[in-house]
Amino acid sequence: xxxxxxxxxxxxxxxxxxxxxxxxxxxxxxxxxxxxxxxxxxxxxxxxxxxxxxxxxxxxxxxxxxxxxxxxxxxxxxxxxxxxxxxxxxxxxxxxxxxxxxxxxxxxxxxxxxxxxxxxxxxxxxxxxxxxxxxxxxxxxxxxxxxxxxxxxxxxxxxxxxxxxxxxxxxxxxxxxxxxxxxxxxxxxxxxxxxxxxxxxxxxxxxxxxxxxxxxxxxxxxxxxxxxxxxxxxxxxxxxxxxxxxxxxxxxxxxxxxxxxxxxxxxxxxxxxxxxxxxxxxxxxxxxxxxxxxxxxxxxxxxxxxxxxxxxxxxxxxxxxxxxxxxxxxxxxxxxxxxxxxxxxxxxxxxxxxxxxxxxxxxxxxxxxxxxxxxxxxxxxxxxxxxxxxxxxxxxxxxxxxxxxxxxxxxxxxxxxxxxxxxxxxxxxxxxxxxxxxxxxxxxxxxxxxxxxxxxxxxxxxxxxxxxxxxxxxxxxxxxxxxxxxxxxxxxxxxxxxxxxxxxxxxxxxxxxxxxxxxxxxxxxxxxxxxxxxxxxxxxxxxxxxxxxxxxxxxxxxxxxxxxxxxxxxxxxxxxxxxxxxxxxxxxxxxxxxxxxxxxxxxxx
Length: 605
Hints:
6-stranded mixed β-sheet; 605 residues; elongated; alpha+beta; disordered C terminus
């Protein structure tokens, strides 16, 4: 065999060996699915495909950063990860941009190509610190469907032989399969991520379905209690069973707490109530001793109906939070239902009271008394409570309801009829013995003191005299109305009874117009002229001190002679004489009426 034939045989043998390596390498890299494993396998087999190479790295293009980033490397330090080139920067950037592989057979060629492609100083320093002095280099693009996605570059650190165009084509053939392997791995990774997301979504949907089912079950349970018109206490007990939480309750209508053994301090209750009327959403109230309460306000529009109060001894789960929110809605509906029942009952009591007043005979009164559990032969008194309007968050109706609860508590055994209208409460109370109502004024005064100590609206109370039999209810009502009118004209927020207003019992029977005419006829001359106002003040003082000249002059800071002169002038103007008892009485009565029934009284706090 000639030398030429031996050379051809060696070349064919070498080509067959390289082809076998290439095929085996492609089979290996395409069998991998995880992208990191695929990339590392690619670089390991790249050195097998070009056995003269000693080191290398693979870069992929980052669309967000718009540069090539090293993803895996062999015989390079981690510093190489900072070597990130833009398209057309350095050898790697040019090969990526043009899609044409290149090879270099000397260090000088490599550096000339780097400088020619405007490598940045940072990247130049990085590659010089990361690499040994390469004696040759081979760089090819990685493409997928004719679109470049990255590059591979191999370095020959010790010169073995010159790289050739055949090496470049051979390495490019390997790189073309690398693109397929990377794409396959990326598709697998994307599908894996989608499967994971689908699984997580399935779990989330399952969890949500479970929560929705639990929420539906809770709603069905609570709604059933509402349909059965169960009392608030039963609903609260069911909420406690569902959540295993200590749940207290504040009823804003009755102004009472149901604490469920929470032992809330009185000052804490007051502060919770104060915040309750300012906040419509759940809030936390923390004590100085680290006790903490979660308060769920119950509102209808802008009216506070009450709240649930839960002592927080740990984190309240989402499920329990949902249960409490549903419970708050059910409680609100039940409270409103109770409120409607109370309003209906109140309307019926109001109508029945009017029917008793209008009853034509004793038989009709007795029939109505039987329906109301009243005894016709009892002794009766009637009270009218009038409440001052306020800008408080609580409605007037709620204050009236709270006060009615106090009255029921104060008079538990007595027969009574109670109803409210606008800002007034009417109480008809009956007892078998007249002695039992003799201290009614004092009892109601104590009740008023207790009420106002809680910073609630002022009220005044007008009480009738005591009469036997229910047939006298018309007189009872009229006396209470007259007494209330007396309190009105004096602008007094106190408690008084008809038998305490004395002479005013007669005066209140006279129409206001007739009172005004009487006042004008008696002292009108002193009131119509401004320069005579000091005479009217003198007259008031004279009667206030029981016509004592010494005390009157001392009060007015004038001499007694000056007072005599003024009194004489008054007698001349009014054409009277203070020595005539009838004249003095008429003038004194006119002054009393003018001050108490016509003059606006200064508001009392």
